[in-house]
Write a structure and sequence with these properties.
The protein contains 15 helices and no strands. By secondary structure, the protein is an all-alpha fold. The longest helix has 37 residues.
């Protein structure tokens, strides 16, 4: 059901809109968590390392899908908020054509270059074959990944966060069952994990796109909207490219860091693979809340209601801190319990690596969550230059410090220490840029009027 985010109490509106988004990302992360969990439990530590190793490369593909999602979602949100439904439909069709083109190019790169990508990150010989197998199969699932992201972006733009939640819940739970069946019953190893993900993502994607176009057909217009528009494509790309670059450079940074970690051996790789999945569950949840705030910002910007954007930032901070606090406490004190879900009889080094990673990062979740809320508003308002500066500062600091610290007596622990420093620097910039947004001018104008 479509929902106008420009009316009603901002706190109530955002809570109702963001909670299904939070639930959706939990189930979205279950795809990757299930893959690692099943690989570690039923295949072995090397299989866990292989899936985690390939995951860093798949994040590049996901970065492009995320960019297409945000480009479509922000522009459609603005047009929906402005009640320009004809242009909104054209924007959706244009985004789908653009997304399909990008997906084909990436599939060709993935099919032809999987060996090179794995060599670049110094994949150890003992996990190379499984890493390549998982990556090859995942590449064929890219159309489902991309168009599912487009579908969720459209749902969110229309103020509907519940429908994608239902699809993801069913798909993720099915993925767990399929993982176990292919690996345990059919003994397919890492290939079974990858095929289970492909099949479940495919079903979810096709159902989602069917519902999207059914809703578009119900929105009757006096004249048929064009299927493509260069001006709208330019607007979509202006959001999609920086969003893609953000995620791509983060993924490339993670690949560089993965290469550093691979030099410490398979036990450290396995411990990192398990703990980074738990970390990504939290950070991606914050990111998804930020994406929801992007939709809220874009709709209100389209409707000219800038004061609601300031209120949205305050509500967004409350949401991410209330969600992040219990997770931070659990990871800091009970990280060993969560890690054992991924590893059957883990080596002491693998377990020590995972626990230390979570203890170092979890106290800083309240900082990175504030950054991601501010980033959501910057992206929804089209302030992409400021958004990119903040993101790149975080990433560059993280990679440089990881490189420097890892070559000291700290070793792999130095890599984990680079995360909080990058988060803090990026957060300061994002909040600074948010406070200089156009809603600040409107606030000052109202204050002057009230004094007069």
């Amino acid at each position: 059901m479509n929902k106008d985010l420009t009316t009603g109490d901002p706190q109530r509106v955002l809570w109702r809109f963001c909670m299904p988004l939070f639930g959706s990302i939990i189930f979205q992360q279950l795809y990757n968590i299930a893959d690692s969990l099943i690989a570690g439990k039923f295949i072995g530590e090397n299989a866990l390392a292989a899936v985690g190793n390939s995951y860093e490369i798949t994040l590049i593909f996901i970065a492009f899908a995320f960019g297409c999602n945000m480009g479509c979602s922000v522009i459609v949100s603005k047009l929906f908020g402005a009640k320009n439904f004809k242009a909104m439909k054209t924007a959706i069709y244009t985004a789908c054509i653009f997304t399909g083109t990008v997906c084909i190019v990436l599939m060709l790169i993935g099919i032809a270059g999987s060996d090179l990508l794995l060599r670049l990150i110094r994949t150890p010989d003992e996990v190379f074959a499984d890493s390549r197998l998982y990556l090859d199969i995942y590449t064929w699932s890219l159309p489902f990944v991309f168009f599912y992201n487009i579908a969720t972006g459209i749902f969110s733009a229309l103020g509907d966060s519940k429908t994608p939640f239902y699809f993801l819940a069913a798909s993720s739970l099915s993925n767990i069952v399929a993982d176990i069946f292919f690996v345990k019953a059919l003994h397919m190893g890492v290939a079974g994990v990858a095929w289970a993900t492909l099949i479940c993502q495919g079903v979810s994607c096709m159902l989602s796109m069917t519902v999207v176009f059914h809703r578009l057909q119900k929105m009757k217009l006096q004249e048929k909207p064009p299927l493509f528009d260069w001006k709208l494509l330019k607007q979509i790309v202006s959001i999609a490219v920086p969003s893609t670059l953000q995620q791509s450079f983060i993924s490339l940074g993670n690949i560089v860091i993965q290469g550093m970690i691979n030099g410490f051996g398979a036990p450290v790789m396995a411990g990192y693979s398990a703990s980074v999945k738990l970390n990504n569950l939290v950070v991606t949840s914050f990111t998804t809340i930020g994406n929801g705030i992007s939709n809220y910002t874009a709709q209100n910007l389209g409707a000219g209601k800038l004061s609601r954007i300031r209120q949205g930032f305050q509500v967004g901070i409350k949401i991410v801190w209330m969600l992040g606090l219990p997770l931070s406490i659990f990871y800091f004190f009970g990280g060993n319990i969560a890690l054992k879900l991924f590893m059957e009889d883990p080596t002491p080094q693998a377990m020590h690596t995972g626990i230390l990673f979570l203890k170092i990062l979890s106290p800083f979740y309240f900082i990175v969550s504030a950054k991601l809320v501010a980033d959501g508003i910057l992206r929804g308002a089209g302030m992409m230059k400021n958004f990119m500066i903040s993101t790149f500062t975080d990433l560059i600091l993280r990679v440089l410090l990881a490189f420097c610290f890892s070559r000291t007596a700290l070793g792999a622990t130095g890599i984990w220490c680079s995360w909080p420093i990058g988060w803090l620097a990026g957060s300061i910039l994002s909040i600074f840029f948010y406070r200089r947004g156009p809603w600040r001018i409107q606030k000052k104008t109202k204050e002057i009027s009230s004094v007069s």
